[in-house]
Specification:
This protein is an alpha+beta fold and 215 residues long. It has four helices and 14 strands.
């Protein structure tokens, strides 16, 4: 019984001490808005304040006020070695600069691709012949391709190849043999190409190049 009484008395004492903490006794940093912070003159290196606009602690680094956090914006993170990533003659000195300059390059290159090779019968002349370029692409890149061989990561096969819908692509013929093909047109909604065969290739390897671009 005595032990139980002592335990209760100790718990009561701890609660009493916690209740006596006064917010007015806590230490705090000077507060300022961004405008007020920017207007401070004569600050010394290492001095700190709490920015009430950003709700972040700032410190003076000798030339400007900097966030005292790790969540820096890309424009605030400098490159160890500034480089010219896009070949325009200007070096990119921050992470933001690099992102802005490399994004158009990677975006453009990632949107252009060649569809799979297909066979077109050019053994005889004919007009208004068709081949669906999108369907040929889907037949080879889609999950329904029974001839598709996947790499293995241990016992796990590679996932399906991502494919686009027909209306998510632009279709281009960049080159064709003018002695074999004529009157080529492509339906942009379906990817169907219409063409005439006006001659036979000498070695049955006449070229026609097709390019897909993601919209």
């Amino acid at each position: 019984m005595k032990k139980a009484i002592l335990t209760l008395a100790f718990t009561s004492t701890v609660l009493t001490i916690n209740a006596q903490i006064d917010a007015n006794s806590l230490m705090g940093l000077p507060t300022a808005t961004t405008a007020e912070m920017s207007g401070i003159s004569g600050a010394s290196i290492g001095q700190c304040l709490y920015n009430t606009d950003d709700n972040v602690i700032y410190y003076y680094n000798g030339s400007s006020w900097a966030r005292a956090t790790d969540d820096q914006a890309a424009s605030e993170v400098n490159s160890d070695t500034p480089i010219d990533v896009d070949g325009d003659g200007n070096t990119e000195s921050s992470v933001e600069d690099v992102i802005q300059d490399i994004a158009p390059i990677t975006s453009a290159s990632g949107r252009i691709f060649y569809p799979p090779s297909i066979a077109i019968d050019a053994s005889s002349n004919g007009t208004n012949r068709t081949v669906n370029l999108y369907q040929q692409y889907l037949n080879q890149f889609g999950s329904g391709n029974s001839n598709l061989v996947r790499s293995m990561d241990g016992a796990t096969p590679a996932p399906d190849i991502p494919v686009y819908a027909a209306n998510e692509l632009y279709y281009y013929v960049t080159y064709f043999d003018p002695l074999v093909f004529a009157n080529i047109s492509i339906n942009g909604a379906t990817g169907e190409m219409e063409y005439d065969i006006i001659g036979q290739p000498a070695d049955y390897n006449s070229l026609i190049n097709v390019v897909f671009v993601v919209k």
